[in-house]
């Protein structure tokens, strides 16, 4: 492959991401034919035009098939991990595989180059399940890997997995060969790891619904939002109660101060004989002076101030002569 063609067939992260999204959407819309395959015509008329228009690229069906082989190898790596031990799980929130340290240790002993699977987020795993898992049982590929393609090596800059000349071989019908068919054709003795994979390939991989993961995330977000709302309501309630309490205390202080002022005024008025005397009508100053003197000499100022105006006038007439 010359330099120009090699550069032309490279896929960026965004191109791969959009391709996967379009495939998942097409599968959900029922674009596969009766045999469960998204054929070449569908890809060329419904998938690639949208991809090329959205990202301004010029991908052909040949480029598409090359990228699908890469994605299939990536998905096989995920499923090999799950089949290796029942101790592996999947975190749909963090998009990571989970397992105990012992399970990871045993897996890395058999796959030392796959340590990134433990620490990196595997965002496309659930989408690749939708794309490749539906027809695993009969060995065909739901997106048309059975079409004849060029299986030459591609440069991959966006993943740890790489495609090689011998990873994907096809039979006379253009379908990928199984590991047993490849080993038979090349007259090679399978290694212990290959034998193990051959035995466990018969197991049905565990399937997790992507909608379940989304639902769990929505429920988690909903619970978190409800909790935040409850906390906010409690804080607002405490603030409101404190303001009401402060307002009541201020009203009590104001009422108490008012009563004290009125009490002092009443006390002052009660003890002021002269003010009480001035309230009595039709008395000249001389008589008022005599009456005040008499009241203090007799020690009856409280009695005099408690009298009504008429009573005061009558007491003065009875005790003070006009001479």
Automatic annotation (TrEMBL):
Protein's name in the database: Uncharacterized protein
InterPro entries per the UniProt record, alphabetical: At2g29880-like, At2g29880-like_C, Myb/SANT-like_dom
Region of interest called Disordered, as start-end residue ranges on this chain: 172-197
Residue ranges constituting the Myb/SANT-like domain according to the UniProt record: 10-107
UniProt keyword annotation of Nucleotide-binding present: no
PANTHER family (alphabetical): MYB_SANT-LIKE DNA-BINDING DOMAIN PROTEIN (PTHR47864:SF10), TRANSMEMBRANE PROTEIN (PTHR47864)
Highest rank taxon of the organism: Eukaryota
Residue ranges occupied by any At2g29880-like C-terminal domain in the UniProt entry: 273-319
Naturally occurring in which organism (per UniProt): Capsella rubella
Swiss-Prot/TrEMBL keywords: Coiled coil
Pfam families: At2g29880_C, Myb_DNA-bind_3
Coiled-coil region: 236-272
């Amino acid at each position: 492959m010359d330099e120009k063609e090699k550069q032309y067939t490279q896929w960026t992260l965004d191109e791969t991401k959009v391709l996967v999204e379009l495939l998942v959407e097409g599968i959900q819309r029922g674009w596969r034919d009766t045999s469960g395959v998204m054929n070449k015509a569908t890809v060329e008329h419904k998938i690639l035009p949208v991809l090329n228009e959205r990202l301004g690229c010029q991908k052909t069906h040949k480029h598409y098939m090359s990228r699908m082989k890469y994605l299939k190898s990536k998905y096989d790596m995920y499923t090999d991990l799950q089949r290796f031990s029942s101790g592996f799980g999947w975190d749909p929130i963090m998009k990571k595989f989970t397992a105990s340290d012992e399970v990871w240790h045993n897996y890395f002993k058999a796959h030392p180059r796959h340590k990134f699977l433990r620490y990196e987020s595997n965002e496309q795993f659930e989408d690749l399940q939708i794309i490749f898992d539906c027809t695993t049982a009969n060995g065909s590929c739901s997106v048309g890997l059975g079409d004849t393609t060029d299986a030459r090596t591609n440069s991959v800059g966006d993943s740890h997995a790489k495609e090689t000349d011998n990873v994907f071989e096809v039979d006379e019908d253009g379908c990928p060969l199984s590991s047993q068919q490849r080993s038979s054709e090349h007259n090679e003795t399978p290694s212990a790891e290959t034998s193990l994979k051959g035995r466990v390939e018969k197991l049905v991989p565990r399937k997790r619904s992507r909608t379940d993961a989304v639902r769990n995330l929505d429920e988690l977000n909903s619970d978190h939002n409800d909790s935040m709302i409850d906390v906010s309501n409690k804080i607002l309630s405490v603030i409101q109660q404190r303001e009401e309490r402060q307002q009541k205390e201020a009203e009590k202080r104001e009422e108490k101060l008012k009563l004290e002022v009125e009490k002092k005024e009443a006390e002052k008025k009660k003890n002021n004989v002269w003010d009480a005397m001035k309230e009595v009508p039709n008395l000249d100053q001389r008589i008022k002076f005599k009456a005040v003197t008499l009241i203090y000499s007799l020690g009856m100022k409280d009695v005099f101030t408690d009298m009504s105006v008429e009573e005061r006038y009558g007491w003065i007439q009875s005790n003070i002569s006009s001479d």
